[in-house]
Amino acid sequence: MTHRIAIIPGDGIGTEVMPEGVRALEAAARRFAIDLEYQTFEFGSCDYYVEHGQMLPDDWFERLKGFDALFYGAVGWPEKVPDHISLWGSLLQFRRRFDQYVNLRPCRLLPGIQSPLADRKPGDIDFYVVRENTEGEYSSVGGRMFEGTEREVVIQETVMTRHGVDRVLKFAYDLAQSRPRKTLTSATKSNGIAITMPWWDERVAAMGANYPEVSVDQFHIDILTAHFVMHPDWFDVVVASNLFGDILSDLGPACTGTIGVAPSANLNPDGTFPSLFEPVHGSAPDIAGRGIANPIGQIWSGAMLLEHLGYPEAGQAIVKAFEAVLAEGEVAVLTPDIGGTGTTESLGRAIAERIAG
Ligand code: NAI
Ligand code: MG
To answer: The Isopropylmalate dehydrogenase-like domain covers which part of the protein (predicted)?
Structure first.
């Protein structure tokens, strides 16, 4: 069975880390006899916008919908295109039209990387944030009235549906069930947001009836952010609405050191449409063009892609490979953001060699 992967390097360091992401995929595909086929697209980048006046061609949906996964680098080059245009014109289109209703981010402290939290070592931080990615607080329901007058009014409604909330909760419970600790934490705020959030809590409890082995706790979002910093070892799988998940999915990886290594997946778990895998970082104009960007965020996203396609051992082999290279800590191989003197390519090659075995 051939899996078709759409490669969209995008902008800046996206174009530099993508070849290393593909190198790692190739190494894992060879070792585990997985048949991957790639097609690279220039759209979804600011250079494409400068030439065509839009981020994506009109027929992007038709062209991409048949792929098994999308592998994205990074999008954004504010000198050429304002960020809200480049982001809304590309990534957010994919997330919406391909109904990628789960945003999944591992938060894991890796060997050889210094956590900004004192005295934390690998093993202390190892959890997932599961963010609802399509509705909730990020709705288009609302508007402005009496603009520019003393009576100016602005309203934006939170929209939560049973369909939308239950499906992300099911994903989070399934993930918790599959992990040794089998623990799910729900982000809530049912004291202050007294209509939607008590209902969210009810849905969490109702879904939990299907998962007797999973232990569940919940925290209000304010104290939960404090616990991320004070007790990151408490967490296993954390599930949250769109806004709360947005905050937690930046805070979690931040607790593990450099954002250059953090991966993410935008998942359509039922497989109706392709899912999208991308590093958490952006296009990093400040270091772009110098060949020194850390490729691990892209490579780890590739590991998540293989897991999603049904090859967990291949994904694990990639993770083990970069953990081993980081643990060795050879200065000439590592990129400058993690204390090395090497390049994107030296680190990418070292990891690919490890994957090969
Ligand atoms: P950024 O993530 O591009 O960079 C933030 C800082 O982290 C910079 O100092 C950069 O050098 C460093 N950094 C990022 N990735 C790195 C890596 N792999 N290795 C070493 N250092 C790394 O965020 P920023 O500067 O706020 O945004 C730049 C552009 O990227 C903007 O146009 C923004 O809209 C876009 N962006 C795109 C994202 C995406 O494609 N999903 C996510 C975040 C930002
Ligand atoms: Mg964010």
So the answer is: 4-351
Alpha helix (H) residue ranges in 148-220: 162-178, 196-208
Element (H, E) at 306: helix 296-308
348 lines ligand 1 (CB under 6 A): no
Question: Is 287 touching ligand 1 by the criterion CB < 6 Å?
Answer: yes
Check residue 140 and give its pLDDT.
Answer: 86
User: Is 299 within a domain?
Assistant: yes
Range of the domain at 155: 126-255
Task: Give the global pTM.
Answer: 0.95
Angle 328-329-333 (CA atoms, 0-180°, nearest 5)?
110
**162: CATH:** 3.40.718.10
Q: Is the CB of 75 under 6 A from ligand 1?
A: yes
Altogether, the residues listed in the chain come to a count of: 357
320 shares a domain with 231:
no
Nearest to 49 by CA among 17, 90, 6: 90
Global ipTM: 0.98
What is the total count of domains within the chain? 2
68/16 same-domain check:
yes
CA of 273 to the centre of ligand 1 (A): 27
DSSP state of 109: P
